[in-house]
Amino acid sequence: MTQQQVKQCIEECLKCMQACNHCYDACLNEEHIGMMKECIRLDRECADICAYAAQAMSRNSPFAKEICRLCADICEACGNECKKHQHEHCQRCAEACFQCAEACQAMAA
Amino acid sequence: MTQQQVKQCIEECLKCMQACNHCYDACLNEEHIGMMKECIRLDRECADICAYAAQAMSRNSPFAKEICRLCADICEACGNECKKHQHEHCQRCAEACFQCAEACQAMAA
Amino acid sequence: MTQQQVKQCIEECLKCMQACNHCYDACLNEEHIGMMKECIRLDRECADICAYAAQAMSRNSPFAKEICRLCADICEACGNECKKHQHEHCQRCAEACFQCAEACQAMAA
Amino acid sequence: MTQQQVKQCIEECLKCMQACNHCYDACLNEEHIGMMKECIRLDRECADICAYAAQAMSRNSPFAKEICRLCADICEACGNECKKHQHEHCQRCAEACFQCAEACQAMAA
């Protein structure tokens, strides 16, 4: 990985963290919250691993690759849940998750 | 706070988190590491609260203001330590810390 | 604070973190999830600050007192929400929150 | 995994987190800090993943196994570094790391 690629992967993680946290907050305010419970759960999982991965990459962690591999899996799962829901916050979140998963997979390779 | 101001404060926290983590890594690799120990310690403190504050703001935490007030204090302390050292990573980190402290103080007001 | 008091405050934070995370998971599985949304939100807030405070105290952070003051406020708010609900996980969580708030206030004093 | 095994794995993670943070703080205060730089770095890595794994298990994360697998690897690496140093904090930390690695491997299996 070049420095530029690492930097971009950090950016994707931070965008995804924000999209997941925004989606989590919005899901908690949805009228039909019962339908959103998996989304709420996965948004938290995904925001937390993305924050963790961004921190790890930016401190040049010797485990950055392994952490990104895990992050890619969680992003994938969160994106798959979010894309089932028609809310704009879910659709945007799914997009951020898949972009982040791709960047993390490249980082982990 | 407008949405735009919150968004900008999140951006400052995330920039500061990256600068602190980069500085932490670079300090651990400095030849005269004994002089950098407070910097190493405060870089970690500051990176962690910045990541935490960015997460809190992006999930619309009811405690975002209090968290930003604490973040401002820690950024200030980290910036004051970093600016004592002539390494470029320390000078850049100090700058990011002071910018983040200012944004967090505005958020907390 | 004596070492023993710090150690006990760490223990309370870690118990509270576990109680909040357990309550969060259980709330997401409750039939009437709409009534639990504030509980879900505050459980996450509280678990995160408790984990953060425990880490800060155990690394002898120069900001441990300020962090514990914030932790006490968040624990208090989470406990007040949880105690409104009759679920056993909420009642247990409220108890852990109030115990942790007390320990953190003593630490912050 | 039984509930009892999960509970024990959480306990090991939290003990290891505390041992790593204590060792990190003590290493930063050692006279010959230059020899301790890998220990400082790995202590932070290990404390952070242990806190993260404990949170994940206590919220019944669908990714608990994967997170514990990563935690086991990081604990192993940190324990191997710590055991090279004769300081009591390093020896105790190594012990906590290896115990936690074992519990996390069982959890991940």
TrEMBL record, chains A, B, C, D:
CDD domains: DUF326. It comes from the Bacteria. Pfam families: Csp (PF03860). PANTHER family: CYTOPLASMIC PROTEIN, CYTOPLASMIC PROTEIN-RELATED. This is Four-helix bundle copper-binding protein.
